[in-house]
């Protein structure tokens, strides 16, 4: 599919009296593609399909509530999987594990210091 800008360019060139071959050369598209976009108005406005809901979507609210209730402790995804299976979740572990990992706060930055006492003042913060 051609982007919206390219479809608009095809229409503008055609309104200026350019032929299909000339438009095809200018845009790098085939003549049939240029014809298709000139003929079909809906093709230029194609936005694609909206994203489909995932199998985990109906259960995300429960998972978020459950993790918030257990904070600051963590609940393993395997435990949540058992609870969700009782509620009708039929998908796999990996999708749930990735969702739970995305909700976890970033780990704190670790600091390390030189092991020699004379250089103990040389502490650095790592990005891990």
List keywords for this structure.
single chain; 128 residues; mainly alpha; two-stranded antiparallel sheet; 7 helices; 5% strand; elongated
Characterization of the model:
The radius of gyration is 28 Å and the shape is elongated. The protein has helices spanning 4-15, 20-27, 31-39, 41-44, 60-70, 77-86, 93-103, and strands spanning 111-113, 123-125. The chain has a two-stranded antiparallel sheet with strand order 1-2. It has 128 residues and is mainly alpha-helical. Among the domains are: 4-44; 57-103. The protein starts with a helix and ends with a strand. Helix 2 (20-27) packs across helix 3 and helix 6 (77-86) packs across helix 7. The protein is built from 7 helices and 2 strands.
How are the SSEs ordered, and which strands pair?
Layout: H1 4-15, H2 20-27, H3 31-39, H4 41-44, H5 60-70, H6 77-86, H7 93-103, E1 111-113, E2 123-125
Antiparallel strand pairs: 1-2
Helix pairs in contact: 2-3, 6-7
Q: Could you give a short description of this structure?
A:
The protein has 128 residues and is mainly α. Among the domains are: 4-44; 57-103.
What oligomeric assembly is this protein in?
single chain
Average pLDDT score: 82
Give the helix/strand class. Answer: mainly alpha
Structure annotation, total helices: 7
Distance between the termini: 42 Å
Unreliable segments of 5+ consecutive residues: none
Cα-atom radius of gyration: 28 Å
Summarize the amount of helix as a percent range. 40-55%
Shape category: elongated
Strand line-up of the largest beta sheet: 1-2
Biggest β-sheet strands, sense, barrel: 2 strands, antiparallel
- The ordered H/E elements are HHHHHHHEE
For the secondary structure, the number of strands is 2
Share of β-strand residues: under 5%
């Amino acid at each position: 599919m051609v982007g919206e800008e390219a479809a608009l360019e095809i229409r503008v060139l055609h309104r200026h009296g350019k032929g299909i071959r000339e438009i095809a050369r200018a845009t790098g598209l085939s003549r049939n593609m240029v014809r298709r976009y000139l003929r079909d108005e809906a093709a230029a406005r194609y936005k694609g399909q909206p994203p489909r809901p995932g199998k985990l979507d109906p259960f995300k609210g429960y998972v978020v509530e459950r993790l918030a209730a257990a904070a600051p402790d963590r609940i393993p995804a395997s435990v949540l999987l058992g609870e969700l299976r009782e509620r009708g979740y039929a998908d796999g572990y990996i999708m749930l594990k990735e969702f739970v990992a995305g909700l976890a706060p970033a780990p704190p930055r670790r600091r390390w210091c030189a092991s020699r006492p004379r250089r103990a003042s040389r502490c650095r913060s790592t990005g891990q």
